[in-house]
Hints:
Blueprint: H1 3-9, E1 23-26, E2 32-35, H2 39-48, E3 53-57, H3 61-69, E4 92-96, H4 104-113, E5 119-123, H5 124-129, E6 150-152, H6 159-174, H7 179-194
Helix pairs in contact: 2-6, 3-6
Bound molecules: iron/sulfur cluster.
Amino acid sequence: MKREDATRQLLPTVVPGVREVGAAERQPDGSQIFLTTRWEKLLDAARKNSLWPFPFGTACCAIEFMSVVMSHYDLARFGAEVVRFSPRQSDLLIVAGTVTDKMAPVLVRIYEQMAEPKYVISMGACACTGGFYRAYHVVQGIDEFIPVDVYVPGCPPTPEALLRGVVRLQEMIGSGETQYQRNVAAQKAAASVGE
Ligand code: SF4
């Protein structure tokens, strides 16, 4: 077997989704192979597999969120079980429930207090569109106030639907599609044009 083929077989797969990983591995002859990757790719792989959710639960959808964190659905399987109730310690805002106009400034304040990079899942019909509350006092979609990465439909969404939403967000982080990543890319592009 050619040395190149043997080397290819030994490529580490410790970070799924990242093809090139910086690593060193002993060959049978004692030598080492080195693989390179971009720092951002490695960071994204770490971030998407260690999301820390902040549940902004205002109504029934929050009950569904609780079931997702419990043992039956076990959000820990996707690395996102470390729920925090401080925006300063969270990077995933899950809005689960009806948001009234009175609560909107609170939601915006919490979002602004989260450090970047941060992501948002809008869970349920109420958070996504106001749901059946076609009323003057209910926000008709939280994206009127904060950027949303993933919308999870349903009233309430099933636990499986929320899990799918988390996995979709992970896919987006891995491919640079989140609002935060797009903003950073746009800023870099604008800066390069100005140079
Ligand atoms: S979408 Fe349905 S289940 Fe969720 S908060 Fe609104 S009314 Fe409740």
